[in-house]
Amino acid sequence: MAAAAPQAEAKSIGSDDYSLSRVPRDKRFGFWSMLLQWLAQSGSISQFTLGATIGVGMTFGDAFLAFTLGAVILEIVIFAIGLAGMREGLATPMLTRWVGFGRNGSALVSFVIAVSLVGWFGVQNTIFGNSVSALVGGPSWMWCVLAGVAITALVIFGFKYMAVFAKIVTPLFFAMVAWSIVSTLKDHSISELIHSPAPGQTIPLAVAATAIAGGFMTGAIVAPEMTRYNRKGSHVFIQSASSMILSEYIVGMTGVLLGHLVKSNEVSHIVLSTSGAFGVIVVLMSTAKINDWNLYGSSLGVVNFFQVVFGKRLHRGAVTIVLGIAGTILSAVGIMTHFTEFLSVLGVAIPPIGGIIVAEYWVVKRMRKPLDDTRESETLPKSSPTWVPMSIAIWIAAFCVGKFYEGGIPALNSLATAFILYSVLGLLGWVKPYGTSTLDDEDAAAPAARATTPVGAA
Question: For residue 446, what is the DSSP state?
């Protein structure tokens, strides 16, 4: 019976991508492949728009401070959580079984992450469809369907093909953008743009930093989805920092200059109008490259949720199809845009997860010992805590701080609250797991049993 399991799995569509196990070290990717994956997350027209929006309300110097604050916050969070994911070879939903939440708590984490990410997949798909419709014509629902189908097809086959796609899209996008920006700015004084006053209503520093750090905080919390494929901790830092530099300082600050130039945040036409049909195609591809991570992370969350709650081990490729179809249909009929406020609430609920992970893994260290004991063998511990009630209480308290406290950056407030509360209470011995859950044999299996993963596995 055991020998038949890999054969049955090989017939599944796409790749399961170690959704319920560690990523073996011999299946991880080299520095340059991973770097392109990170840089691909910076290649977005929306980041130029964010920079232009901030530029309309801030001087160049103040905008630089805002992007610096946002970048530093994000990099600290990404590295602290991403390094844990790299060391253990586990995505966030699985990592939380032994780091702060226990088995049942990880199901709650998975549910929140899955709903949030598939929701943003649909929202981004809607924005994408509307933008392309306005640029080249045709009904927006048609573009939503085309984009949704293309992204779903890519994510079905997993990280390996997502990495190949990044190698194609990332250089093309930044080459096209560089050409467009140089063509636009060559007839204007860069010095005058840098020293010009904010053309619009002033944006406070805290508000700008909130937009920068808060907007990507969910992505920072699920960084292990990517870093579990890294080989070294230094790679995690260099690659994520490179992505921050490119996204915030180069793309974002260029957007600030464009905002000063046109005195508006409507700058996407600058890139597209100077690049023609080729520019539109590249923007489509770069948007897909960013949105694929929303769908990918959601599929990992759903797999863990069903395994914990229903005892069913779903194949990640099959889950991707269902989620992709659902998100695509909802975006095509225009429903997803009505859920942005709900998704923003989830955006405050997710950062405390990161605060708890960092506090348990790097400070308290009361629950991670089974991971330490099985790391070298690349297997999972035979059991995990069932519940950690104090973590749920801390999660709720941190969410309330992020949601209802009006000062500072909401996402950062909730994350910091969770980190401080868990660290203090954990070191005092008040954070205690209750119950023990035994893992299924197939989940704790050695890496050798995973040698026949389907085509597309990393």
Answer: -
Residue in this structure with the two tokens 């964010």, named with its chain if needed: 50
Enumerate long-range contacts of 194-200, CB under 8 Å, 24 or more apart.
194/60, 194/257, 195/60, 196/59, 196/60, 196/260, 197/59, 198/55, 198/56, 198/57, 198/58, 198/59, 198/62, 198/260, 199/56, 199/259, 199/260, 199/263, 200/56, 200/57, 200/263
Residue matched to tokens 């530029």: 55
Strands 434-438 and 383-387: antiparallel
Cβ atoms within 10 Å, residue 145: 17
Q: Residue 84 is which amino acid?
A: A
The vertex-17 CA angle with 219 and 12, nearest 5°, equals 130
For residue 302, give the nearest of 321, 287, 289 by alpha carbon. 321
Structural Rg of the chain based on CA atoms? 22
Residue 408, both tokens? 């500072």
Tell me the pLDDT tens digit for each residue of 204-226.
887 888 778 877 888 899 999 99
Decide: 291 and 129 in contact? Cβ < 8 Å: no
Per the model's pLDDT, the better-predicted residue between 173 and 266 turns out to be 173
Q: Is residue 384 helix, strand or coil?
A: strand
How far is the CA of 288 from the CAs of 15, 54, 200, 344, 369, in angstroms?
A: 19, 25, 32, 21, 39
Q: Per-residue b/e over 54-92, b at no fewer than 16 CB within 10 Å?
A: bbbbbbbebbbebbebbbebbbebbbbbbbbbbbbbbbb
Which residue, chain included where needed, has tokens 């569509």? 13
CB-CB neighbours of 429 under 10 Å:
9
Nearest Cα to 189, choosing from 85, 135, 260?
260
Q: Which of 387, 381, 391, 389 lies closest to 438 in space, CA to CA?
A: 381
Residue 244 token pair: 């921050």
Helix (H, G, I), strand (E, B) or coil at 50: helix
The answer for 58, left when phi > 0, alpha when psi is -120 to 50, beta otherwise, is: beta
Instruction: Using the predicted structure, report yes or no on whether residue 447 has a pLDDT greater than 70.
Output: no
CA dihedral defined by 373, 377, 383, 385, rounded to 10 degrees? Answer: 50
Whole-number Å distance between alpha carbons of 231 and 227: 8
User: What sign results for the dihedral spanned by CA atoms 237, 238, 243, 248?
Assistant: positive
- The C-alpha atoms of residue 274 and residue 261 are separated, in whole angstroms, by 16
User: Residue 387, SS3?
Assistant: strand
Question: Are 9 and 139 in contact, with CB atoms under 8 Å apart?
Answer: no
SS3 176: helix
Other C-beta atoms closer than 10 Å to the C-beta of 127 total: 18
Please state, rounded to an integer, the average pLDDT across all residues of the chain: 86
